[in-house]
Amino acid sequence: MKNRTFKYILLAIASVVFIFSGCAVTKKLSAADILSKTKLEFVSLSLDSATINKDLFPKSDDLKMGLLPNPHVVALVQDFARGILEKEIGKAHLTVSLNAKNTGEDTLWIRGLMANLVLDSLMELPVALRDSVKLVPGDNPVNLVTEMPIDRRIFKLMEVNVVHIVGRMDVSLKEQEEAFTLDFNMDRKISQEEKQALADKARTSVLDNIVSDWVGAIGF
User: Distance between CA atoms of 49 and 219, rounded to whole angstroms?
Assistant: First the structure.
């Protein structure tokens, strides 16, 4: 009798587990179905700003009291103009803009994302989701952010022809529900205009920051 009762308990527990696991599988399949009706389109890759390492230039009282700019700053500007960087001098902040076109009638929440942005063979950068995204029917902007080290590789941005994004995202059918992980993989060719805009923005952002430090090094 005890053995029979124990078997019934085990069967009940197994049934509950099966029901909950089955529900989880159903939700994951529903989320995957919504994503299958959603086309991710690569819109643009842009450089928003650049920051220079604060301890890059040595400071001294003699430099602060002089009327001439810090010679270390002058040397860096000259090297940068010639395409020379001996070490990493800061970070360039990039935004990857995507459009998620949901052709279905259901809504899906993107709660998190772990992915890498691959710039041809130049470098691989981890990207993060700027904000949680609600994929409603129609077009939905999805913005990813990352940081690129400012070193000698920044002068090879014009050689990047393909941008590749691969990773996984956490999605749920409702904002507060349990999230499920789904993989994605996409790439896009970069036009000459986009490459030129990236290179120009990188150059002006870096030089603006260097000049800012230059002006700050002058004392009166």
Answer: 27
The per-residue pLDDT for range 181-203, each reduced to its tens digit, is 878 888 888 889 888 888 888 88
Amino acid, res. 154: I
Distant-in-sequence, close-in-space partners of 197: CB < 8 Å, separation ≥ 6: 46
SS3 139: strand
Q: What are 22's two structure tokens?
A: 């089955």
Q: Residue 122 corresponds to which tokens in the numbers above?
A: 């130049």
The letter for the amino acid at 140 is: N
Length in residues, the chain = 220
Provide CB contacts within 8 A for 54, sequence distance 6+.
none
Angle, CA of 69, 157 and 162, to the nearest 5°: 160
Query: What are the two backbone dihedrals, phi and then psi, of residue 17, each rounded to the nearest 5 degrees?
Result: -60, -40
| Residue reference for tokens 């690129």 | 148
Residue 192, both tokens: 């000459």
Contact 190, 163 (CB under 8 A): yes
Residue 120 falls in which region: left (phi positive, over 0), alpha (psi -120 to 50) or beta: left
109-149 tens-digit pLDDT: 888 888 999 999 899 999 998 877 888 889 999 899 999 99
Residue with tokens 């990039």: 94
Instruction: Give burial (CB, 10 Å; 0-12/13-18/19+) of 102.
Output: buried
User: Could you give the 3-state DSSP secondary structure of residue 182?
Assistant: strand
Residue with tokens 């001439």: 68
